[in-house]
């Protein structure tokens, strides 16, 4: 696992396409129980090298009901984005994750993760990649039907502050879905 992580962190496969250059961000351990698959690092995470080290990460930890220490303990959570580097800015936010990362590295990482009990699929890119044809037509439908993907996957919207409108429009997410997620995470972290 250490060699694989070193190889990922030194990867420059898509560097010519990255405005800020390559700085792959990943956390994993052979004992990781939960895998978080998000989109790609933003500029703050690119600068710090710490995944989810921003407002989105704060919201995600709140959704999971875990402390920062529990979150960054790689025996609890592996953090494997769809794109390991900041992809750059687009017209309406960050560009999509680079397409090279997941096919090159995800399977190799999962081959080393022997204790995974749950995979959190955050956002449409992760959901489409891992759920394929079983993903619903919209992210909202996929998230609303999270129980169809259990026990392996749990789809989530992105916890970005930009998603306030989605959260306001879909109050069922915080009242119905988050408590189920928190119970699962608590059970996995404390009882495994």
TrEMBL record:
SUPFAM superfamilies hit by this protein: Uracil-DNA glycosylase-like (SSF52141)
Domain Uracil-DNA glycosylase-like: 25-182
Gene3D superfamilies (UniProt xref): Uracil-DNA glycosylase-like domain (3.40.470.10)
SMART domains: UDG (SM00986), UreE_C (SM00987)
InterPro entries according to UniProt: HI_0220.2 (IPR047124), Uracil-DNA_glycosylase-like (IPR005122), Uracil-DNA_glycosylase-like_sf (IPR036895)
PANTHER family tied to this protein: URACIL-DNA GLYCOSYLASE SUPERFAMILY PROTEIN (PTHR42160:SF1)
UniProt name for this protein: Uracil-DNA glycosylase family protein
Organism: Neotamlana sargassicola
């Amino acid at each position: 696992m250490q060699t694989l992580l070193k190889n990922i962190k030194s990867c420059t496969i898509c560097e010519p396409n990255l405005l800020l250059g390559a700085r792959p961000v990943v956390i994993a351990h052979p004992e990781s129980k939960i895998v978080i698959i998000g989109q790609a690092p933003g500029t703050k995470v690119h600068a710090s090298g710490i995944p989810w080290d921003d407002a989105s990460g704060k919201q995600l930890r709140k959704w999971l009901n875990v402390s920062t220490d529990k979150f960054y303990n790689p025996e609890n959570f592996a953090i494997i984005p769809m794109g390991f580097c900041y992809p750059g800015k687009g017209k309406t936010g960050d560009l999509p994750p680079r397409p090279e990362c997941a096919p090159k590295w995800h399977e190799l990482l999962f081959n080393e993760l022997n204790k995974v009990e749950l995979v959190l699929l955050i956002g449409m890119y992760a959901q489409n990649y891992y759920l394929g044809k079983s993903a619903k037509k919209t992210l909202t439908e996929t998230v609303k039907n999270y129980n169809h993907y259990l026990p392996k996957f749990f789809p989530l919207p992105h916890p970005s502050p930009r998603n306030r409108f989605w959260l306001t429009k879909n109050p069922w997410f915080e009242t119905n879905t988050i408590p189920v997620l928190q119970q699962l995470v608590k059970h996995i972290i404390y009882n495994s």
